[in-house]
Design goal:
Elements (H helix, E strand, L loop, with lengths): L9 H9 L6 E6 L3 E6 L2 H11 L15 E5 L5 E2 L5 E3 L18 E3 L4 E2 L4 H6 L8 E5 L10 H12 L3 H8 L1 E8 L2 E12 L6 E6 L5 H5 L5 E2 L3 H5 L4 E5 L22 E5 L11 E5 L48 H4 L14 E4 L3 E4 L1 H10 L13 E4 L3
Antiparallel strand pairs: 1-2, 3-10, 4-5, 5-6, 7-8, 8-9, 9-10, 11-15, 12-13, 13-14, 14-15, 16-17, 16-18
Helix pairs in contact: 4-5
Amino acid sequence: MMNSIQKVPTRILNAINGENLSSDTVIFYKEDQGWVYKRCDVDLIDQTLARRTNLDDDIRPLESLGPFGTRPTNVSIAILLGTDMYQTKFDQGLSELAQYDDIECVGQHAPLTPVTLQGAARDVAHIPHDATHFCWVYPPAGLTQLGDKAKKKIDKKVAKGDLSYTFLAFGGFVYFRVDGYNYTMLQANALVKADNGLTFHGPFKWRSVYTAHLDKQGRFQNVTVSSLLDSGIKYYCFINPNEKLQSSVDGYPDWTPAKNGAFIYLYESPAKSHPYDRYFTIADAPITDHIGTQVMPFSLVRRSKSLRSSLPLLQNSVTDKQSASSLPSSNADKDRFKCSICFDRTIQCILIPCKHMCACAECAQIIKETQKSRCPICRQTFTEIWNVFL
C-alpha cells in the first residue's frame, strides 16, 4: 500500500471538474456511504498535507527575512502606462547585459501605490522626500534563463558593490512623483543585505485562497536569489501597502495583509499550495543600531547540493553573542567566509565604521586605493581596516 499522495487519474479528474467543485473540497471514503465529499477548512487541508506529504530533504521553511538596506542606483525605469510592464536601458555601466540575448530591456512591476513609510523609516529606506508613489520592480524578462557562467559574471559585479546590477538581478523599489497623469521617476533603490534598513514581521502562514487573485495579474515571478532557491522557494510576489485581496473561494472575506507591504514566498507554482508558503510584512520602524560582523551580498548562482544542507537562510550577520566555538569548521561552511571580491582567499578584514566583513587583506587594499575606500556592501566610506582571523 502506498502512503504518499498520488495524482488523480485523468478520467477521474475530468469527472470531478465537471461537477464544478470548489478548490477547498475534500473527497474521501466512508464505509457506510462510499465516496463522499465536503468543503473543508483550508488551514486543515494544509496541515494534513504537511503531515502526510514526503517533503524533499532540501526544502526548508523560511524562518526570517532581512533586515535589508536600500541603496540608490543609476538604473532608469520607465513605466509603460496602461500596462504592468516597465522599460529600462542597458547603457553605461550596464552595457555588458546587452551581450546576453536572453535578457530583455523590459520587465514586470507591481501596481503603483502611495508611499506609506514616514519619519525615520522613510529616511533609512532612502525614499526621496518628494516621492508620492512607488512600485516593486521585478528583474527583467529572461534573466532566469541565463546559464551559470553568465550569472557568475553578474555575481561578481554584485559582490563588488555594483548597485545597478544588484537592482536588475534581484529587483527593487522605484519611486515617483505623481501629479495628475504625469509620472516623474525619482529614484530606483536596490535591496542589499545590511545591518539596518527595512525590517520585517513574520513569518506568517500564507492563505492560499488569496493566491489566485494575485496570480491572475501575473504578480508571482521566479525567484532569483540563490539562497531562497536552495531552500526550495520558487516564486515570490510583493504585496502593496493596504492592498485588498479577494478570495477564490466563496465565504472568505476580502483581506488586507499588510499596512506597509509584504513579500510572499511560494514553494510550488501559484496553482498549487504548499505547507511552507509564507509571507513577511514590512515593519513601521527600522533597525538602526544592530551591528553585525558579516554581511555577504545576494547571489544568482546556487551552491552545489553538498553545500546546502546546514547553511542558514538569508542570515545577515554573526552576532557578538556567538562564541568562537560556534563558527563553521567544515570545508563546506568555510566557503561562507571566502572573500566576496576575489572569491578565492579567506575574509581577513572588517571595514570600519560600517563593520562589514567581506574582503581579504589584498582586496581590501585594492578597494581602498581604487574605489575611494567605499565598502562594497553598503557603499559607505570606511576609515580603517581591522584584521580578523577565521
